């Protein structure tokens, strides 16, 4: 019971990160490899603010702002010049950006994990199971954010413009949508979600290191792919699925060392059976 | 005729480079002046070249991104070294053991290449990249937990390790392997099959329409690249002890990718130079930088990836790139007047062959004809 609950809250974190991947992929048609490292940037922003004596609330705001700024700058400097060139080039640049963030973080903060003095929430008992309050907060806030995002994309002007851009960039531009602005907004939202994910991540594991974002990043991307990249509900389902699978695997002693392998094996199997992911849209290839 | 000659020269440049390094280092080693660390460096360079050239087959020629190249190397290193240790008890000759284990390790890695190639038939681009990444991580995790291979302690290959102080044969064998790999890859990419592979990269649908068996060639490239990576892994297993799972992480796959990008996509000579350069820089950084500054290495990698890829691919930078092209600079030095367009069409790139008639030229021709037009004579159509 508590395993599944932990899995759900981990899944909520993955889902938040996966949303960032999936939105950027849907609109800019690129895999933003550096997205995972934005989480790391957020974690260090929180760490620095708290270490400087700032309040926890201030730290959260700082994290979101810093992440959004990073997201926009990265898009402008590294990805925008490559718009319209081969996907391979964009992917390799994204990997480069990911490395850049990690190595700069390591040079500034050191490779050692730094403890972040987050507030501890303790745990509560429901029946026989013990559930940490941080997990509950993660789950609830995560669900609220995701619901808000879905409403935003469906009902606002910007959200609908995003849908249009993801459907057909050229046609959207002809309809008077500023595609560059929409892509920038998408990166900003994705990075803000990553900042939220870093907050929840630190609530569960209160320490930060330069490679903090890389594994959750890759796993969240896996989640996004499992759910069908470009699809917002898909990212949520994929994230929660992956989180639950991870916690269940970790709780079974025989499987525990193979957790990562199991998760990736699920990814490969799903992609083999359904190359577009669970909820992905089929795209016909045009000559 | 002269064009053929030029092709052949560039064909042999890489062999000459590798062979020269091998011969020179062998002579120095015979006189006993080769520092031990440098013979280690040579082995590192040799297996890096094999890895970079084989990854270039996948990324540069086939046009699919593989982020799990270290995974194939991992298979080769663990299984090949394990086999070598078993074989060493039966066969006395160390060299035969090395070559046998290289073949078997390579074959097993090739089998895994086949397995990874299968999803490659259904997936493309980013999806395939993530599957190869997943493959690399799965392989690493599985080997880490197998008790035959020493679990988290790694596989101790002390029994078959070549001591670089007494035995220089490992780097000789590695360099000969490099030559064999180069021979194979050079001939492959210049053959009908190589052209088929690049055709798939440039336009898969068009390639299919021309009757190219896309399924076969995709699997083929993955299997070949995995085979070579497996061989590189076996060399690694003979060079160091223990073979540790953590070495074959995603970071190492990226390191190989950096070599390919730095050397230039689909350029074998480039891959060789870049592999040697990166390995050398690594080697120097390792001895001078420690602690947190070791991240400087990754900072350099990151900058190489970002700057080179943007420079080579950004549509807006294309004119600047043309101005800086080596051919044009050469033309400037020799005093021949050429402008970027000439150089570009020299390269034989089909994309720059003009397909549209320029409207201005057509109009100006018409105007000239109009001046000759005399209304008294009956006009004859189409001069």
Strand tally of chain A, please? 4
CATH first level of the largest domain in chain B: which class? Mainly Alpha
Mean pLDDT of chain A: 85
Share in β-strands of chain A: under 5%
What gross morphology of chain B would you assign? globular
Largest interface: A-B, 49 and 51 residues
**CATH architecture classification of the largest domain in chain B:** Orthogonal Bundle
- Helix and strand content put the structural class of chain A at mainly alpha
The helix/strand order of chain A is: HHHHEEEHHHHEHHH
Number of helices of chain A: 11
**Largest sheet of chain B, described in full?**
none
Which shape of chain A, going by the Cα principal axes? globular
What number is the mean pLDDT of chain B? 79
Helix/strand structural class of chain B: mainly alpha
How many angstroms separate the termini of chain B?
Answer: 37 Å
> Which fold name fills CATH's third level, the topology of the largest domain in chain B?
ABC transporter involved in vitamin B12 uptake, BtuC
Could you characterize what this model shows?
The complex is a heterodimer of chains A (287) and B (383). Chain A has 287 residues and is mainly alpha-helical. Chain A has a single domain (8-116, 128-273), classed as ABC transporter involved in vitamin B12 uptake, BtuC, CATH 1.10.3470. Chain A is built from 11 helices and 4 strands. In chain A, strands 1-4 form a two-stranded antiparallel sheet. The longest helix of chain A has 27 residues, at 2-28. The radius of gyration of chain A is 19 Å and the shape is globular. The mean pLDDT of chain A is 85. With 383 residues, chain B is mainly alpha-helical. Chains A and B meet through helix 4, helix 9 and helix 11 of A and helix 4, helix 5, helix 10 and helix 12 of B.
């Amino acid at each position: 019971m508590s395993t599944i609950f932990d899995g759900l809250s981990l899944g909520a974190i993955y889902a938040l990160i996966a949303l960032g991947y999936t939105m950027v992929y849907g609109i800019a048609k690129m895999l933003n490899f550096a997205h995972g490292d934005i989480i790391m940037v957020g974690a260090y922003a929180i760490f620095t603010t708290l270490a400087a004596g700032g309040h926890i609330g201030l730290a959260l705001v700082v994290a979101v702002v810093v992440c959004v700024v990073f997201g926009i700058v990265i898009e402008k400097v590294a990805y925008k010049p490559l718009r319209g060139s081969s996907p391979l080039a964009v992917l390799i640049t994204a990997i480069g950006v990911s490395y850049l963030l990690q190595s700069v973080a390591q040079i500034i903060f050191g490779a050692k994990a730094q403890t972040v003095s987050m507030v501890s929430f303790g745990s509560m008992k429901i029946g026989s199971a013990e559930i940490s309050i941080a997990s509950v907060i993660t789950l609830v806030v995560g669900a609220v954010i995701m619901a808000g995002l879905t409403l935003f994309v469906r009902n606002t002007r910007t959200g609908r413009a995003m849908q249009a851009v993801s459907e057909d960039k050229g046609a959207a531009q002809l309809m008077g949508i500023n595609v560059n602005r929409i892509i920038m907004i998408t990166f900003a939202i994705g990075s803000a979600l990553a900042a939220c994910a870093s907050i929840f991540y630190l609530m569960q594991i209160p320490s930060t290191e330069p490679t903090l974002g890389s594994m959750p990043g890759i796993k969240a991307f896996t989640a996004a792919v499992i759910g069908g990249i470009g699809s917002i509900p898909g990212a949520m389902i994929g994230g929660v699925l992956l989180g639950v699978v991870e916690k269940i695997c970790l709780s079974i002693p025989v499987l525990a060392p193979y957790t990562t392998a199991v998760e990736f094996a699920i990814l490969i199997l799903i992609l083999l059976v359904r190359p577009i992911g669970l909820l992905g849209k089929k795209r016909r290839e045009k000559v | 005729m002269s064009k053929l000659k030029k092709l052949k020269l560039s064909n042999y440049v890489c062999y000459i480079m590798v062979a020269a390094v091998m011969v020179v280092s062998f002579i120095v080693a015979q006189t006993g002046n080769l520092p031990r660390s440098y013979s280690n460096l040579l082995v590192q360079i040799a297996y890096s070249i094999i890895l970079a050239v084989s990854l270039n087959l996948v990324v540069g020629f086939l046009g699919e991104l593989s982020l799990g190249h270290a995974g194939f190397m991992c298979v080769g290193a663990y299984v090949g070294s394990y086999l070598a240790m078993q074989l060493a008890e039966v066969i006395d000759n160390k060299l035969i053991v090395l070559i046998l284990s290289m073949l078997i390790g390579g074959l097993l890695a090739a089998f895994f290449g086949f397995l990874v190639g299968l999803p490659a038939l259904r997936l493309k681009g980013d999806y395939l990249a993530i599957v190869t990444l997943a493959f690399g991580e799965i392989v690493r995790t599985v080997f880490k937990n197998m008790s035959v291979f020493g679990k988290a302690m790694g596989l101790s290959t002390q029994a078959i390790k070549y001591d670089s102080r007494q035995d220089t044969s490992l780097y000789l064998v590695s360099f000969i392997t490099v030559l064999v790999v180069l021979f194979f890859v050079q001939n492959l990419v210049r053959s009908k099959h190589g052209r088929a592979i690049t055709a798939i990269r440039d336009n898969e649908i068009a390639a299919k329409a021309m009757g190219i068996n896309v399924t076969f060639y995709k699997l083929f490239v993955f299997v070949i690249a995995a085979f070579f990576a497996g061989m590189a892994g076996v060399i690694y297993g003979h060079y160091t002890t223990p073979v540790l799972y953590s070495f074959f992480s995603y970071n190492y796959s990226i390191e190989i990718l950096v070599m390919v990008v730095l050397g230039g996509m689909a350029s074998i000579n480039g891959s060789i130079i870049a592999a040697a350069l990166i390995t050398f820089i690594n080697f120097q950084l390792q001895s001078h930088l420690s602690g947190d500054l070791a991240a400087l290495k990754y900072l350099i990698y990151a900058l190489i990836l970002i700057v080179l890829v943007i420079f080579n691919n950004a549509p807006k930078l294309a004119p600047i790139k043309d101005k800086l092209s080596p051919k044009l600079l050469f033309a400037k030095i020799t005093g021949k007047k050429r402008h970027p367009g000439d150089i570009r069409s020299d390269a034989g790139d089909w994309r720059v062959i003009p397909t549209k008639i320029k409207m201005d030229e057509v109009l100006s021709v018409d105007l000239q004809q109009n001046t000759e037009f005399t209304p008294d004579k009956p006009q004859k159509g189409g001069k």
